[in-house]
Design goal:
The chain has 122 residues and is an all-beta fold. The chain is built from no helices and eleven strands.
Amino acid sequence: QVQLVESGGGLVQAGGSLRLSCAASARTFSIYAMGWFRQAPGKEREVVARIGWSGCTIYYANSVKGRFTASRDNAKNTVYLQMNSLKPEDTGIYYCAATQTVGLGASQYEYWGQGTQVTVST
């Protein structure tokens, strides 16, 4: 069983930055690939980034490439999402999730955090 707790969300103006953190309870955190997802009102949950167990393999959605950076610290059981040059369309609830599979889709992830709200104002 893995428990995930996100933090770091908030209200920021367009062009600003936020850093999300996701702390995991698992003793074997390093065996999980971690994903960051977001869900805007009225829209489906979408993958933002995925980082492999070692931190060397990272996928980014096209909409965030060059602006968001995912990283992880296995010694601290924590994964991060640095978000720069934020846009109003980045607004949504951000979730971290853990999986032992190689898929990108939300259905591939077994464990989810409760989410943290990110709001980007114009």
